[in-house]
Design goal:
Layout lengths: L3 H39 L5 H15 L3 E4 L4 E3 H7 L2 E2 L1 H4 L1 E8 L1 H8 L6 H14 L6 H12 L26 H28 L7 E5 L4 E7 L4 H9 L4 E6 L2 H20 L1 H7 L5 H8 L16 E3 L11 E6 L3 H8 L2 H4 L9 E5 L4 E2 L5 E9 L8 E2 L3 E8 L5 E7 L1 H13 L4 E6 L2 E4 L11 E5 L5 H13 L6 E9 L1 H30 L1 H23 L3 E2 L1 H30 L4 H8 L2 H25 L3 H33 L26 H21 L6 H4 L1 E7 L6 H12 L4 E4 L5 E6 L8 H15 L8 H4 L9 E8 L1 H30 L2 H25 L11 H31 L5 H11 L1 H21 L5 H41 L1
Parallel strand pairs: 3-20
Antiparallel strand pairs: 1-2, 4-6, 4-19, 5-6, 7-13, 7-16, 8-9, 9-12, 10-12, 11-12, 14-15, 15-18, 16-17, 19-24, 21-23, 21-24, 22-23
């Protein structure tokens, strides 16, 4: 081998750089471990929120202190943290969310909230279509407007032909050009939203946050690994930051209306005819909420005060800006009742434009119930506040005279004048500060405020809340509402368990491979093991260098590359053994084994096909799938280098020293030698077996179906842990009451852990809907939760007892997009591989054989999942991770097939006098040792991960195990026989064409 010295230098330097990069991860972990120990020592035993705060304080205290001094450079914890290898949500916990910026809201804003009937009807129709379409919202709106509007144009003065847009849209301009202008304005709004969100997240303090736009879809992906306060994060990224100042009615001014409304609601709830007329507009669960759990009205007569508790003022001293209170669970019902036309008709003329808004925060009542306060805002005909947030110059968290946190705001000159006038006009009355339709404070005004400064404060406001409010105000207002359409939340407890399980399974898998290689190849196997360890070091070093994110599927990708690294050495060693068997010298056999004519051609072809699969996965995948693809691609490159060069260096060194390498041991000597199997004669039996299995699978798929995951069908999925063993059927029955229909409930890992999947209210929009569903889940499970409070039940923070360990939400629209991308990924990879094999082997029959075998493997894996998902003790959902597993199976199957095809091509050239059937059989027999050896090694590794890995990866690993087993079989009994049969037909067609 030439350039040995250069390769040695490169390998040593690369190894040192990898160790250097990984050292930052170890140092950061040490500081974070100290922070956890500090929090445990100082915090209360069962207060995870307090411990998280203490951890943060410890980290902040050491953030800028030097923790390593190399003489030529010093590093603080912040420096080290920026260079550490990042862990994904499934290992570290946190939140991954995709936000949809409301294009509809941008259009309404650009039209100055047009009341044009055609415009609003087109928006409504576009809303409806988008729920079942992957098309761009603007395109849907444009199509609907063209169908509805007749001769009316988008440039009409009542729509977009406004004064504000006069420099961009001229009167009577064609719809097509107006659409282009609108697209530019929408792109600008989405860009603004991206910058606002990035500014907010940068101030949040999470390690290595990730935020990126997803094409031109108006979607923004945000990943915050390590975030524990999920509720706080959610508010931060969805808050529109629409700050408003309003006058407020007192409880005395509103109470008479409440009494009249109470009587009217009692009549409505008695009058079933009213409810019947509204059944078309109300969902069944909304009516159930109105009527209460008991439909027999003779038992309990419902009225408004069943849900709302008015704050009655019997004297001047009892005047308050708080007009009522309600249970948090009843807020949706109260909103619905107060918005009824029969109830609104009771408002006196002076209250005609009153708006009822809730406090931003609940508080506990005397009986422990979560209560929230209601305010009556002095609205107006145009629904415009007296002062808006665009007058705020600066905002920051400070402490008041009682050392309580608040938000101090400074206004510009215009705002100063408006604020002075508003406070002067309301001396003796109340003024509300409203942020995103929630009241943060509504104090009484004692005198006019002329200095241009004011504050937002609340009796229970925390420092974190005050910091977040000032952050969103300083970062700016979102140009349109952004709602979470897909979210994945993993609690830190589950993340730590995944880390522990991954380390143990990863260690066991490597140990099994190392032992097997020594057992099978002896001293040569030891050299392969050294190369394998160096390979692992290189992979982790590269991941750390590029701040790549390591996920559970990513670890599976590393394990797969370990198998491929072993495979490369197995191919080389088997070729060397062939040379030795033919009485060639050791040196010549080694030279031929590592040459292009020997093993290198097959190794390169096999790795390229897998690399192509990784590229497709990376292009079409998201989140953990990208992580899997990235580690797979990195692993292929490092495996090729270590297997070919590092192993060669060690073997050459041993050969030059005169060592007698035999490439086997007393145990493995003679294995898979002198094998001569007539595979082609058995192909019809193989076709029948494969056909029967595939037909059974297809019948099962069309009759039983496949269990689609939330990311493919939409819905919400919760992993909930309890302090006792649970009966899934019983829980599903109890939750039917809370959700209207029974959710899917299945044991997830241990018998005290359940996975609960529901589509309850998944078609309804709004952040409050997520809270309502979570509340309903808590209510339905309350009898099993013991003393666990709702706050402790929510996802996030370390869980000492029962609670939500992880959570996923996917809206139906994005679920369709995910499914479409997955199909593109599968068929795209098959097309690219087909073309590559055609290019390399120059015969269509080789491509057909490989692709048919891949379809065979995929159909069998799908069939196995369809037949077994109902009784397997782990999740077997068809989702993004399953698609990653399928594409990995495709890559592995092709790897096997290409190695065999390469040997067939070689034998065709070296044995021109043999019959083609003999060439094929001999080629298959000669590679049988490598095929079985590699498959067994890979299966051992995967079984170790499947057995000892985390619950969330078992379905993924099961698909890989089935796929590897089937892929090994298909490369021998499907791909090659199909290639043989089609090549005979190809020859007949060619010969007849020649004649």
């Amino acid at each position: 081998m030439q350039n040995k010295g250069l390769i040695k230098v490169f390998a040593i330097l690369f190894g040192l750089v990898s160790l250097y990069q990984l050292s930052f991860t170890f140092l950061a972990n040490k500081v974070e471990s100290d922070a956890v120990d500090y929090a445990v020592t100082k915090g209360a035993d069962n207060n995870a929120r307090q411990k998280a705060v203490l951890e943060g304080k410890y980290i902040d205290s050491v953030a800028n202190k030097d923790i390593i001094n190399l003489g030529i450079a010093k590093y603080t914890y912040n420096d080290v943290r920026d260079k550490e290898m990042n862990l994904g949500l499934d290992l570290k916990g946190g939140i991954n969310a995709i936000l949809q910026v409301s294009v509809k809201e941008v259009l309404k804003s650009l039209s100055n909230d047009s009341k044009n009937e055609s415009f609003n009807n087109a928006l409504a129709a576009a809303d409806k279509r988008q729920k079942s379409s992957n098309a761009n919202y603007l395109d849907l709106f444009f199509e609907e407007f063209e169908n509805i509007a007749g001769t009316t144009k988008l440039s009409d003065p009542s729509i977009f032909g406004t004064k504000a847009l006069s420099d961009k849209i001229s009167f009577d301009e064609a719809n097509v050009t107006v659409k282009e202008t609108l697209q530019n304005e929408i792109d600008s709004s989405i860009g603004t939203a991206f910058e606002v969100l990035r500014s907010r997240i940068d101030k949040f303090g999470v390690t290595q946050p990730n935020i990126q736009r997803i094409g031109n879809s108006g979607r923004i992906q945000i990943e915050l690994p390590g975030a524990k306060d999920i509720e706080r994060v959610t508010k931060l990224i969805t808050s529109k930051a629409e700050l408003q100042f309003w006058g407020v009615y007192t409880n005395a001014e509103v109470q008479n209306f409440f009494f009249a409304a109470n009587a009217k609601v009692a009549d409505l709830l008695k009058d079933t005819s009213v409810l019947e007329t509204e059944k078309d507009s109300l969902k069944k669960d909304d009516i159930d909420n109105l009527l209460g759990e008991d439909s027999d009205s003779t038992k309990v007569q419902k009225n408004l005060f069943t849900y709302l508790f008015p704050n009655v003022a019997q004297s001047q001293n009892q005047l308050s800006s708080v007009v009522a209170q309600a249970r948090v669970l009843d807020t949706a019902t109260v909103n619905d009742l107060l918005s009824k036309k029969e109830v609104k008709a009771l408002l006196p003329s002076e209250l005609r434009y009153a708006k009822f808004l809730w406090n931003y925060k609940s508080n506990k009542g005397t009986d422990g119930t979560e209560l929230i306060e209601l305010y009556a805002i002095k609205g107006n005909r145009n629904d415009k506040p007296t002062i808006e947030g665009d007058v705020i110059l600066d905002a920051g968290q400070v402490f008041d005279q009682l050392n309580k946190p608040e938000v101090s705001m400074t206004m510009n000159s215009s705002g100063t004048k408006q604020w002075a006038k508003m406070t002067a006009d309301n001396v003796g009355n109340f003024v509300a500060v409203v942020l995103d339709d929630y009241v943060y404070t509504a104090p009484s005004v004692n005198l006019a405020i002329t200095g241009g400064r004011t504050s937002i404060s609340g009796g229970t406001m925390t420092v974190a809340e005050a910091e977040d409010i000032s952050t969103v105000l300083k970062a700016g207002k979102l140009p349109a509402a952004a709602r979470i359409i897909q979210a994945e939340v993993v609690g830190p407890s589950l993340g730590q368990e995944s880390i522990d399980a991954s380390i143990s399974s990863f260690g066991l898998a490597i140990l099994l491979v190392l032992i097997w290689m020594i057992l099978y190849y002896g001293k040569a196997g030891l050299y392969a093991d050294i190369a394998l360890v160096v390979n692992i070091l290189f992979i982790f070093g590269i991941l750390a260098s590029f701040n790549a994110v390591l996920t559970l599927p990513g670890i599976a990708g590393i394990i797969l590359t370990i198998g491929m690294s072993v495979d490369a050495n197995v191919i080389i060693f088997e070729r060397i053994k062939e040379g030795l068997f033919k009485k060639k010298g050791l040196k010549q056999s080694v030279e031929e084994g590592f040459s292009i004519k020997g093993a290198l051609s097959a190794i390169i072809d096999a790795n390229i096909t897998t690399l192509l699969t990784g590229i497709i996965l990376y292009i079409f995948g998201t989140g953990p799938i990208k992580g899997f693809a990235l580690t797979l691609m990195i692993g292929i490159a490092t495996s090729l280098f270590t297997a070919v060069f590092i192993t060669r260096l060690l073997i050459d060194r041993s050969v030059n020293k005169g060592s007698n390498l035999t490439f086997n041991t007393s145990v493995s000597k003679g294995w898979f030698q002198n094998i001569s199997v007539e595979f082609l004669k058995k192909r019809k039996i193989a076709y029948i077996i494969s056909g029967a299995i595939i037909v059974a699978g297809i019948v099962s798929i069309f009759s039983i179906g496949l269990k689609q995951g939330v990311d493919f069908k939409g819905g919400r999925s919760y992993v909930v842990r309890f302090e006792q063993s649970m009966n899934a059927t019983e829980v599903a029955s109890n939750l039917k009451e809370a959700f209207g229909t029974a959710p899917e409930v299945k044991t997830y890992g241990d018998d005290n852990q359940l996975k609960i999947t529901t589509v309850y209210k998944i078609d309804e929009e709004g952040q409050e809907v997520d809270e309502q569903v979570q509340n309903a889940l808590y209510t339905g499970l309350k009898s099993y939760l013991g003393t666990t409070t709702y706050n402790d039940f929510k996802p996030g923070f370390e869980k000492e007892g029962a609670g939500v360990m992880s959570y996923m939400k996917v809206e139906p629209t994005i679920a369709d997009d995910i499914k479409t991308s997955a199909l593109y990924a599968v068929f795209g990879s098959l097309l690219i591989v087909f073309l590559y094999i055609l290019l390399r082997f120059r015969k269509v029959s080789f491509s057909i054989g490989a692709v048919v075998a891949v379809f065979h493997d995929v159909l069998i894996v799908l069939g196995v999942f369809s037949i077994t998902y109902s009784f397997m003790p782990f999740d077997m959902e068809i989702g993004q991770s399953f698609i990653a597993a399928i594409l990995t199976v495709v890559g592995y199957s092709l790897n096997d097939t290409v190695v065999i095809f390469d040997r067939i091509r070689e034998f065709t050239g070296t044995h021109p006098n043999w019959k083609y059937s003999e060439v094929v059989d001999k080629a298959l027999s000669s590679t049988l040792g490598r095929t079985i050896n590699t498959s067994l090694t890979t299966l051992l590794v995967m079984l170790a991960i499947f057995t000892f890995g985390g619950d969330s990866i078992k379905g993924f690993m099961f698909a890989l195990i089935v796929g590897v087993a089937v892929g090994t079989y298909s490369s021998l009994f499907v791909a090659t026989p199909i290639m043989f049969d089609t090549s005979k037909k190809e020859e007949k067609i060619t010969s007849s064409y020649t004649k």
